[in-house]
């Protein structure tokens, strides 16, 4: 019997959610898979190729009585950066899915980064995503230790059609 690992659950959920909102996209190649990341090449009905690079974290810093903050930290290994940079250098669009799991829950979050977002984090060893409050509309992404080293992205990017972002 073949079992599945935790990453299979997260990668499958992210891909399923993406495809639900991007019916014109078809996976064409799954490569460079390891326990914590996965690279998938997709093609649209208009023959636009692009990649999705997925990483997940199932551990997070939960809300406590004194804070309404939830955060996930993703390491950015040289191997990750080399994979992403090769695709960017080849002129192919790439989207980075940072899949944020909640321990012992069947829910999660997906932060979708485009090339412009990646450019802001590519020199870091890790990136931290924060959600503050009960219903925040944006992820706060930390690119360094200083408070001003942050930027925001919409939380609902995974629910959008990516065709416009590919062009």
Quick check: average pLDDT?
83
Secondary structure tally: strands: 9
- The DSSP helix count reads 4
Topology pattern, helix = H, strand = E: HEEEEHEEHEEEH
What can you tell me about this protein's structure?
It is a single chain. With 167 residues, the chain is of the alpha+beta class. The protein has one domain (6-166). Helices cover 23% and strands 37% of the residues. It is built from 4 helices and 9 strands. It has helices at residues 6-21, 78-89, 115-121, 163-166; strands spanning 25-31, 37-44, 49-57, 69-75, 94-101, 108-113, 126-132, 138-142, 150-154. The strands form 2 sheets. A 5-stranded mixed sheet has the order 1-2-3-5-6, with helices on both faces. The longest helix has 16 residues, at 6-21. The protein is globular and about 45 Å long. The model has no long low-confidence stretch (mean pLDDT 83).
SSE layout:
Blueprint: H1 6-21, E1 25-31, E2 37-44, E3 49-57, E4 69-75, H2 78-89, E5 94-101, E6 108-113, H3 115-121, E7 126-132, E8 138-142, E9 150-154, H4 163-166
Parallel strand pairs: 3-5
Antiparallel strand pairs: 1-2, 2-3, 4-7, 5-6, 7-8, 8-9
Keywords summarizing the entry:
167 residues; four-stranded antiparallel β-sheet; 9 strands
Short description:
With 167 residues, the protein is α+β, with helices and mostly antiparallel strands. Helices cover 23% and strands 37% of the residues. The chain has one domain.
